[in-house]
Amino acid sequence: MTDPSHCEVSWFSALCDDDYEFLGVSDPGLVSSWEHCRDIALTAEAAGFDNILLPSGYALGIDSLAFAAAIAPLLRRMRLLAATRCGEMWPPQLARQFATIDQMLGGRLTINIISSDLPGQTLASAPRYARTVEVMQILRTVLDGQPLDHDGEFYKLKLAPPRIRTVSGRCPPLYFGGLSPDAREAAAKAADVYLMWPDQMPAVREIVADMTARAANHGRTLKFGYRVHVVVRETEAEARAAADRLLSRLDDAEGEAIRNRSLDSQSVGVRRQAELREAASDDGYAEANLWTGIGRARSGCGAAIIGDPDQVLAKLNAYRALGIEAFILSGYPHAAEADLFARHVLPRLDHGPL
Predict the structure, then answer these.
(1) Is residue 65 a part of any domain in this protein?
(2) pTM for the full predicted model
(3) In the prediction, which pLDDT does 157 show?
């Protein structure tokens, strides 16, 4: 485990039509566009965040890598965590895109690997994650500048080292998440940072222990990241009121439709978020300061840390004590909540890039 006093704190740019003042109520001013998502990224950089996740969806929003290339020249300090749906891309081409964007960023690219199907096709879990491992292995070899001689189940490639390189000459860190046994094994074999969605503290502790052991079985080590929403206000009462306001206009049928539009709506991780929500208290809390209401209108990461600055900081530090070294945070609306978190909590964290 690395120094628990230091962590990476990232924000989220809503490339996949996921920005609201009221959850489930579309707002033309918050729909994903180049201008809106650019402004979120620039707000996050000015606020002092270390990195920003650029999510990727097949049917939703705008393209993550095209956006990364466009925003790169506008950033001076912050990293980009560019998500890619690896089932959609030929790995050598993807490596070339990553190397190009990394050069545009001056070496500040990080990569979020998503184990996706090719749209219109469906692979069972085991072969899909086996393909994902091959993609990560190919990317690492090529972006490390090594000749590629890959003879796998899904890719058979023999290539000379590429001319275009990242600034460091090495593969950027690969962030990867998934809760199923196949996903956990894929991360243990090939990822650098294992990402998890919100859960109760005992479950987080179990996942960190399990993934540490799995990685060790492959002669590797992992860092750990935690993706969660935040609602921070000067008092806990104000934070709870802000959370309630987010849901105040939600139609449950529309919330269900939003959840079902996601391509991963039936994954083990999504099912776990639903279980967390169903087992929560009547006011939606799964444990102290962890509110599951956001999951009523969102697939994937479905809970938020709610509270005053001291409570939010204490919750983050409790995760850090379990081994979490990177946080990917978000809130609604994204630019406004980024500013609130940056004013109330971020200066109190010893943070920087992993």
Answers:
(1) yes
(2) 0.94
(3) 96
